[in-house]
Amino acid sequence: MSLETIEFTVAGDGRSAPLAGRAHCGVVGSGDLEVLLEPKTGESAVSVRIVTPVKGFDALWKRVVEHFVTESGVAGLSIEINDNNASPAIVALRLRQALAEARA
């Protein structure tokens, strides 16, 4: 199975608050994924790296992550996602779970 790596950056909006802690949520299993959140120093943008076996859904990944960043107000963050065929709803759920863990 070949994997595709998708990388992009989501600009901070100037209102977003940086995240203080790291978080790891989920597992790389069938229909699931793991999300790793790590704060970055000195940057307001959110950098994103996704490794997935599913090709051709770059625009959908970007929309899901941009919605998460806008909805949650995070900034200065690195998001790493290791996917194994998760649906967009599962992606959104794991991102929210990781954020809750990082803020706990």
TrEMBL record:
Native organism: Azospirillum humicireducens
Name of the protein in its database record: Malonate decarboxylase acyl carrier protein
NCBIfam families: malonate_delta (TIGR03130)
HAMAP family according to UniProt: Malonate_deCO2ase_dsu (MF_00710)
Subcellular location: Cytoplasm
Chief location of this protein within or outside the cell: cytoplasm
Keyword Phosphoprotein assigned: yes
Alphabetized UniProt keyword annotations: Cytoplasm, Phosphoprotein, Plasmid
Cytoplasm is among the record's keywords: yes
Description of post-translational modifications: Covalently binds the prosthetic group of malonate decarboxylase.
Lineage of source species: Bacteria, Pseudomonadati, Pseudomonadota, Alphaproteobacteria, Rhodospirillales
InterPro entries given in the database record: Mal_deCO2ase/Cit_lyase_ACP, Malonate_deCO2ase_dsu
GO cellular component, one term: cytoplasm
